[in-house]
Structures are given as C-alpha cells and as structure tokens.
Amino acid sequence: MKLTLFIVLGLACVAYGQKVGTQTPEVHLSLSMENCESGSCTTESTKIVLDSNWRWTHVVDDYVNCYEGNTWSPEFCPDSVTCTENCAIDGVDDASWSGTYGVTTTGFELTLQFVTEGPYSTNIGSRVYLLADDNNYRVFYLKNREFIIDVDSSELPCGLNEAGAAYGVGYCDAQCPHDMKFIGGMANCDDWEPSDNDPNSGAGKMGICCFEMDIWEANSMAQSFTPHDCSITGYYPCEGIECGDNPDDRYSGVCDKDGCDWAAYRLNQKEFFGPGLTVDSSQPITLVTQFITSDGTDNGDLVEVRRIYIQNGVTIQNTQVDFDGITPYDSVSDDYCSEIKDFFGDVQAFAEKGGMKALGESLDRGHVLVMSLWDDHYSHMLWLDSNWPLDADPATPGIARGPCPIDSGVPSEVEAEYPDATVKFSNIKIGPIQSY
C-alpha cells in the first residue's frame, strides 16, 4: 500500500506584512511546550497559527475572492501593487481549524489530518507555526541546545510530507518557493502560472529564500534530517537566477537546495528505521536533536548536528554511514558533508554556502518552528522514500533513498485512498545538551 504524505518539522526564518480581512475572527489554538534552558523545566503557554497560503484571500471589506483554485482574479489582481491594495487574507476561527483544515490540539499535542472536506472546499494538508503569544512567533536559539519533540507517523505508510505573525505570513525556506501568495507583504501575482497538476497551487515571479534546518522529513518508511545554508541572511525575496529555479541555475542561487542530508536508508542502513525496525516507525518516537558547538558554549561555532531517538524508555543512538571506504560518521558535520557528497557525486553546495559555521550564525539570529503535512506534486516524494533521480541506477550509492516503489506517491491517488491519514507532534521541549 502506498501513502504519499510528507511530514516536515523544520526551523525557518519568517517575516511579515500585508492586509488583514475582517470577515472571520482569528483564533490561535493552544499548544504548550516546555523550556528547560534554566536547568529546570517550565511550561510555556505557546500557540499555533495557520500559514497564510491556506487562508481565504478576498477583496478588502467584501466576500469576493481574489484567489480561487490556483489562479488570481484578473479584475482585482492585474499586478502585484494593485492586488496588494485590493486584497486581504482572513482569519481562522474555532470551527475552521478542525472542520476546514483538519488541525486539532490538546495540551502538548498537535494533530494534522491529510484531507479535510470543509463546508466550501476540500483542504489538502496544512502548515502551522508555533507562536509565543497571539502576535509573535516563538523564536528558537538552538546553538549549544537540544530540541526535543515526539512524533507519531505510524499512519503514514510511504511517501506522505501586512498581517504579521498573527496571520501566519512570511514563510521562507532554502528551496526559495514561488508558490507563496504573498511575499514581503506584496501579492505574488505577477507572472503567476497555475500548476498543471495541482488544482490549488501555482508559481509567481518572486521566490522567498532563507536558511532552513529540517529537523524531521519523514513518513513511516523513510526519514532524514537536513541543514540548508544560504549566502544571504534572513528573509530574502528572490527573482531569476538568485532563486536557483531551473536545473541549469540550481547551484547558482543564493541557497543550497540540496542541503547536507542525513538519511539512514540512503547511507546504506536499510534496517534502521521503519515498521518493526531498530527505530520502529509504527510507534511514537521521541526525537532529540543536538546542536553542538566547538567549545561547548553558546558563543562557539556550530560544528555538529547530532540525532538521538527514544522509544519505550530506551535511548537509541544514531546509526553510522555504512559504505566501504567511507568514514562511519554518525552525525552531520563539515567532514561528513564533504566526504559523503564526494562519494555520492553531489555538488558541494553546503560547504560553498558556509557549512556548519554559517548555519550556526543563522541559528544565532533565531528560527521559527514549522510543522506540516503535505504531498508532493513535483517528484511524488521519491527523493525521500524511493529511488531518485529516476534515470539513475539504483545500485549507485546515494540513489536508493527508501523502499517505496518508483510508481508510488501520485497525489491524486494518495488523496483519494488515504484522506484520513494523520500525524501527531507533541511534547516540544528545548534545553541544554543532554537534558533529555
């Protein structure tokens, strides 16, 4: 059975701007976390906010849509400036969280449902951010810290992943996405091209870039964690070659789209993660991610990102690279990234963009927690859980990334067959190294 869902728990920079509608009151769901940085743990009354891309976009002070399906209204959005003046994003009320978007919380736990049949449309997936309060994102400073979260992806058999913080605007990542409806407070409607295989999405002229630390990209069959560097700082709107969009320009952009991934299956450890394996994906998993510095202080350079798993009270150390002639690394470091990319024949983009030191400098500036569930209309998530690229020999090291078949992951099939698929994130915690 094939389920193309994708979970990403990432840390991405965020910025904001643009108009707020008044037709629906905004409600933020409570999702508490623990802060253990002082040596003892205290509960923070944090909340979640829905990403602006999922929100109703309409004419200011009216109920007329500015964006419908995967196209902008030519009447209200003939260009970015006019559209920004005419249009607003609206709130998400209590009923809409679960009834429209399939998102619920209780105490320390968040649940995201894949397909939700709402009163006006069918919603696919979701993306939410953690808030410190109703008007500010909860910013994490992770250097010389560890980030802990429980994840239950047992229901995901293969493949499935001027409004301000109060309205979930400002998403960015190292892929410099063009599908964001608003970038830097402006409508991204110029040169907008509706997707030919996604009825809800498209791509505009502008992309939006920033550093990205993927804590968890996974389903029940495969997983990875991946830092991505950029040559810029903060929230950076891009256009053309700077975005690195097409294959010829992929490595000419301002961000490292590949990142330096740690994926057990791709590293030839095919019995480490999955149902019934060493890390058993049929059960909840506690993820401990440590950001280790050169001198063990907050001021040192970042030199290592280390992963530890906990299940049923048992601590499981990360597995090692398992290729002849390759150092058996068990964490992400500059040496690991350099050696494994040479071995796989990958471009050394992570090192070229500054490596671990640059990532540490981004962590010093602060990142925001993003939790999402989505399917992949571009590559059907094969880059995560199958063979990728498809024209390469799967026997070549680095091509096999998971056990899923290469014809799996078609979004229309997944959405029809597994609408009730869910993922749960819970017990978010930040603290000193080895506080787990």
UniProtKB/TrEMBL annotation:
<keyword id="KW-0732">Signal</keyword>
<keyword id="KW-0378">Hydrolase</keyword>
<dbReference type="InterPro" id="IPR037019">
    <property type="entry name" value="Glyco_hydro_7_sf"/>
</dbReference>
<dbReference type="InterPro" id="IPR001722">
    <property type="entry name" value="Glyco_hydro_7"/>
</dbReference>
<feature type="signal peptide">
    <location>
        <begin position="1"/>
        <end position="17"/>
    </location>
</feature>
<keyword id="KW-0136">Cellulose degradation</keyword>
<keyword id="KW-0624">Polysaccharide degradation</keyword>
<keyword id="KW-0326">Glycosidase</keyword>
<dbReference type="Pfam" id="PF00840">
    <property type="entry name" value="Glyco_hydro_7"/>
</dbReference>
<dbReference type="GO" id="GO:0030245">
    <property type="term" value="P:cellulose catabolic process"/>
</dbReference>
<keyword id="KW-0119">Carbohydrate metabolism</keyword>
<comment type="similarity">
    <text>Belongs to the glycosyl hydrolase 7 (cellulase C) family.</text>
</comment>
<dbReference type="InterPro" id="IPR013320">
    <property type="entry name" value="ConA-like_dom_sf"/>
</dbReference>
<dbReference type="GO" id="GO:0016162">
    <property type="term" value="F:cellulose 1,4-beta-cellobiosidase activity"/>
</dbReference>
<protein>
    <recommendedName>
        <fullName>cellulose 1,4-beta-cellobiosidase (non-reducing end)</fullName>
        <ecNumber>3.2.1.91</ecNumber>
    </recommendedName>
</protein>
